């Protein structure tokens, strides 16, 4: 199962958002998509999920164009968690997760014990079993986001696409959620805002700027002080640990440039 | 037999019993009260030739006037409630229904266009004209809503504009082209009126409602998938455009046929789905049949009330549905606010 984008372009309302985006998602990896606001992360995610059709280029799933496949067929293999999808319906936590079974059920296929078991497991994965009976509008942002993930897991996809899944969550929930996703035996593509989270959890990172992929590779290669300065306009030092990992330390805009040797001292 | 099937059968039988009871009452109650057993015997005579000796006038009133009327009322209630559920779910808007969105108004214009102006040159039947009018109105409202930002408020405001426009067109056509007698009849019909309903109307209303119910049930899971919006539905494997075309088409068809038979009736499509949600929850597998049943029973009762509330006069049924529906809707709105 492989997912790849070839020379994608996309524009909305006359504004060009993506141009010539190509990337290959490797089976089993967690690929992070990072980039400033408006760099095209969300558009790329919806093109990869096949819910929008690119104006140029194509997305291939195991060599087949997404738009040659039935929507249902795609939904059995790719699940998408959008940014903050909301509802005003009086739906319970469990019912929200049950929606994940939709692509596996025909119009009159009865709900089976197996479907129940899959939903139970998904709720357990995100530690929401105890709250399964609660109504949606009584849940916190973190709980709702975990339910969206559980819904995606109940879809039993091979590829999970997450669009800024940790927005509006506190740090505990952010790390918890990414750890949860990381634990799944799935191929994951996640648009992320926090560079340190991307560095911590992703196998590879694609850095986007103005609708193009600026760099793609392991976090320690993609995240350089020069790139962060040029793409985000922020001065930062990259601190590398011995195990090939790295983290980013942002510098206060008012402070003078770092002393030589600062990075070495920190590591 | 496993338990879910037994349960389903039991609920189905109960629903049927409630519906039959409502129809029975609908046939018995009126300006001249007819005993329940006479109604039952009439039905038995007509349906399987039981051969009970009955007063021919009583039998005639029950069969030719009241039963056909009660069946059409039931179909109308069910169809409008189903349309309401579909529109509310697809547009994710608690205020959506065929009346508010101007679909009923468009259907009226289409129907009047066929009757008064002779549009379609005899090829286009009254319901077909109403259907075209309904689709035109929905198209107009959808376009206007999209241009004004797609929000909950935008859709409803566009619906208000659409209703006003198509109602004005209807009035214009009627005033310009109809004679005085036609005009009076049409104005009465526009308020919602079951007086002229006979068996031929049943043979239009019943199949349309049955087909509508089946198509909606076929899409019950798709409608569930719209809970978190269209993109979420698409990511759950629903082909959104196809679902929209089929479901809006069916809602417009049901609305148009009902408007062409009984005129434009408000509040049923709006209020009944909310009432049904309180009873069976938000999942469409239950919500659709429950809404259809509650809508059917509600309309039969509203029709009974319209015949007995003012002795010697028949009130347009649209007046009853608005008198009951408006306060009920206010209640629902304030409750939603309290829980949200």
From TrEMBL, chain B:
This is FecCD family ABC transporter permease. It is a multi-pass membrane protein. Its main location: membrane. Keywords: Cell membrane, Membrane, Transmembrane, Transmembrane helix, Transport. It holds the Pfam family FecCD. SUPFAM superfamilies: ABC transporter involved in vitamin B12 uptake, BtuC. Gene3D superfamilies: ABC transporter involved in vitamin B12 uptake, BtuC. Coiled coil: none annotated. The lineage of its organism: Bacteria, Pseudomonadati, Pseudomonadota, Alphaproteobacteria, Hyphomicrobiales. It comes from Labrys neptuniae. It is found in: Cell membrane. Belongs to the binding-protein-dependent transport system permease family. FecCD subfamily. InterPro entries: ABC_BtuC-like, ABC_transptr_permease_BtuC.
């Amino acid at each position: 199962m492989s997912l790849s984008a070839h020379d994608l372009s996309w524009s909305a309302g006359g504004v060009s958002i993506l141009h010539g985006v190509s990337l290959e998602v490797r089976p089993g990896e967690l690929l992070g998509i990072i980039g400033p606001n408006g760099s095209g992360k969300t558009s790329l995610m919806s093109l990869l999920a096949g819910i929008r059709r690119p104006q140029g280029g194509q997305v291939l799933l195991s060599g087949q164009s997404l738009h040659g496949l039935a929507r249902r067929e795609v939904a059995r293999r790719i699940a998408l968690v959008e940014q903050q999808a909301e509802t005003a319906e009086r739906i319970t936590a469990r019912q929200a997760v049950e929606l994940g079974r939709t692509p596996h059920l025909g119009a009159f296929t009865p709900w089976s014990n197996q479907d129940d078991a899959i939903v139970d497991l998904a709720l357990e994965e995100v530690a929401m079993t105890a709250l399964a009976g609660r109504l949606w509008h009584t849940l916190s942002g973190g709980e709702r986001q975990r339910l969206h993930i559980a819904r995606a897991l109940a879809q039993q996809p091979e590829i999970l696409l997450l669009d800024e899944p940790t927005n509006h969550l506190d740090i505990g929930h952010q790390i918890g959620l990414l750890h949860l996703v990381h634990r799944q035996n799935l191929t994951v593509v996640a648009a992320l805002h926090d560079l340190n989270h991307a560095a911590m959890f992703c196998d590879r990172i694609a850095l986007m700027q103005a609708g193009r992929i600026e760099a793609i590779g392991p976090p320690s290669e993609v995240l350089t002080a020069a790139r962060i300065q040029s793409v985000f306009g922020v001065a930062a030092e990259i601190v590398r640990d011995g195990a090939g990992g790295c983290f980013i330390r942002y510098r206060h805009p008012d402070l003078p440039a770092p002393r030589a040797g600062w990075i070495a001292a920190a590591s | 037999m496993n338990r879910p099937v037994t349960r389903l059968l039991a609920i189905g039988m109960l629903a049927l019993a409630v519906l039959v009871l409502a129809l029975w009452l609908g046939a018995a109650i009126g300006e001249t009260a007819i005993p329940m057993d006479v109604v039952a015997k009439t039905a038995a005579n007509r349906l399987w030739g039981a051969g009970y000796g009955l007063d021919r006038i009583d039998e005639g009133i029950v069969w030719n006037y009241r039963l056909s009327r009660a069946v059409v009322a039931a179909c109308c209630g069910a169809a409008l409630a189903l349309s309401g559920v579909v529109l509310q779910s697809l547009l994710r808007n608690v205020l959506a229904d065929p009346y508010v969105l101007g679909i009923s108004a468009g259907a009226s214009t289409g129907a009047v266009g066929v009757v008064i102006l002779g549009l379609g040159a005899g090829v286009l039947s009254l319901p077909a004209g109403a259907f075209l009018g309904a689709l035109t109105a929905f198209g107009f409202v959808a376009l206007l809503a999209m241009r004004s930002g797609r929000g909950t408020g935008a859709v409803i405001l566009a619906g208000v504009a659409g209703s006003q426009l198509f109602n004005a067109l209807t009035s214009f056509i009627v005033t310009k082209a109809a004679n005085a007698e036609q005009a009076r009849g049409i104005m009465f019909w526009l308020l919602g009126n079951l007086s002229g309903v006979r068996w031929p109307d049943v043979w239009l209303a019943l199949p349309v409602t049955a087909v509508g119910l089946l198509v909606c049930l076929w899409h019950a899971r798709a409608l569930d998938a719209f809970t978190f919006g269209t993109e979420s539905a698409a990511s759950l494997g629903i082909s959104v455009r196809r679902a929209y075309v089929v479901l809006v088409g069916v809602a417009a068809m049901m609305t148009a046929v009902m408007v062409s038979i009984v005129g434009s009736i408000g509040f049923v499509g709006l209020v009944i789905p909310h009432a049904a949600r309180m009873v069976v929850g938000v999942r469409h597998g239950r919500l659709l049949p429950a809404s259809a049943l509650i809508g059917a029973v509600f309309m039969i009762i509203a029709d009974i009330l319209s015949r007995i509330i003012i002795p010697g006069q028949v009130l347009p049924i649209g007046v009853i549905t608005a008198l009951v529906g408006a306060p009920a809707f206010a209640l629902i709105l304030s409750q939603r606010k309290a829980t949200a």
